[in-house]
Recover the amino acids of this structure.
């Protein structure tokens, strides 16, 4: 009898152990599955962020969910990389100019390359925060690579100063000496950048950046995002603020497209400005995840319509904007000359911009399409005299004012 009791207790304990083991495996598997299917928005949610943070701290690379901060930095990094490419192409163009252009060619091109390397470091580094335990080290390495590239540019510039400016009679004697000094400075900068780039991802410094990133930076960022998400949910500001950021981001992004197209294909200036605006707009839109992981484009209209202010505010703001826009049209038509046209176009642009805000608070239900398009449903006749273009709204008004045409 005693033997049977012992066997029964043993078998019961064994069954409980197996059950607990299977339960733990099932829980771990579920966690990984949820993490794999989650988007950047899960970083602002309470439970999933806590689980991800714990996994990341314990295992170093156990966090697989993307943080909102990582998404924002990744977008900005890509924007910086594109900007560097534009600067590099400008350096190539300068190379076709005699003496001065050829001298500055190497430095400008290297500067563009350095900017691109820094942008890549941001995307590959902090842009993968939460999924790469050494995201901080990779970001430092990107900056170091940029420093090394800049040093290469200084070295090339020193060589160009010595050879090209050496052909100019007035500075021909001093140019080789100055060029040699500049070249040595460039070599020193390059060596510093190369050393820091290697050390930041390996060796003692690499170990420090790895530890700081995985066990300090990720938990802190996760905590902050978790807190802002809870604050947004608790106060009810998650959807309004998230929606506002989405709309602002979409507007800036659309403005970037407009600016890029105004210069035509291959225009480096408008293309660069347009790309920067595109990147900033995208980053602003993604920042909505800090307060609302499910941020939509109707958050502001939801808030105003809930308290009954959507239509009244829309009407008031649209009427004011239409009046200002009409004034701009009158200024342009009174004395037709370049100055009055420019002033009138600017005033009309301000009026169109103010009027388009009405579409923002009412959900963009006006015939023009709200913030991105016309957004002029009340007093539209008054704005017609201002020469509103098919673009309408914020984008059309601003671009019309800049170009002098509506």
């Amino acid at each position: 009898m005693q033997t049977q009791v012992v066997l029964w207790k043993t078998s019961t304990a064994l069954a409980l152990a197996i059950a607990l083991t299977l339960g733990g495996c099932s829980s771990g598997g579920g966690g990984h599955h949820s993490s794999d299917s989650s988007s950047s928005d899960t970083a602002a949610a309470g439970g999933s962020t806590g689980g991800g943070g714990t996994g990341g701290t314990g295992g170093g690379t156990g966090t697989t969910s993307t943080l909102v901060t990582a998404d924002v930095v990744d977008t900005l990094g890509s924007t910086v990389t594109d900007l560097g490419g534009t600067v590099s192409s400008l350096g190539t163009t300068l190379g076709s100019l005699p003496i001065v252009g050829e001298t500055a060619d190497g430095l400008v091109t290297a500067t563009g390359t350095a900017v691109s390397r820094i942008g890549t470091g941001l995307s590959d580094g902090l842009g993968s925060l939460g999924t790469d335990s050494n995201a901080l080290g990779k970001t430092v390495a990107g900056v170091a690579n940029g420093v090394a590239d800049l040093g290469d540019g200084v070295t090339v510039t020193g060589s160009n100063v010595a050879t090209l400016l050496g052909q100019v009679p007035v500075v021909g004697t001093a140019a080789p000496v100055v060029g040699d000094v500049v070249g040595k400075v460039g070599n020193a900068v390059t060596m510093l950048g190369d050393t820091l780039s290697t050390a930041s991802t390996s060796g003692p410094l690499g170990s420090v950046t790895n530890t700081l990133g995985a066990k300090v930076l990720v938990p802190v960022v996760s905590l902050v995002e978790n807190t802002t998400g809870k604050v947004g949910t608790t106060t009810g500001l998650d959807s309004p603020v998230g929606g506002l950021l989405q709309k602002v981001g979409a507007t800036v992004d659309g403005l970037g497209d407009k600016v890029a197209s105004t210069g035509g294909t291959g225009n480096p200036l408008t293309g660069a400005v347009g790309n920067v605006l595109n990147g900033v707009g995208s980053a602003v839109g993604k920042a909505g995840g800090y307060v609302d992981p499910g941020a939509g484009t109707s958050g502001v209209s939801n808030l105003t319509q809930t308290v009954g202010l959507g239509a009244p505010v829309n009407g008031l703001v649209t009427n004011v904007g239409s009046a200002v826009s009409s004034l701009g049209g009158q200024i342009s038509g009174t004395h037709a000359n370049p100055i009055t046209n420019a002033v009138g176009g600017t005033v009309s642009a301000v009026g169109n911009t103010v009027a388009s805000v009405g579409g923002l608070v009412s959900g963009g239900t006006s015939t023009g399409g709200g913030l991105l398009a016309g957004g002029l449903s009340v007093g539209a006749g008054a704005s017609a005299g201002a020469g509103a273009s098919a673009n309408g709204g914020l984008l059309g008004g601003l671009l019309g004012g800049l170009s002098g045409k509506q």
In short: The chain has four domains: 1-37, 68-233, 236-297, 299-403.
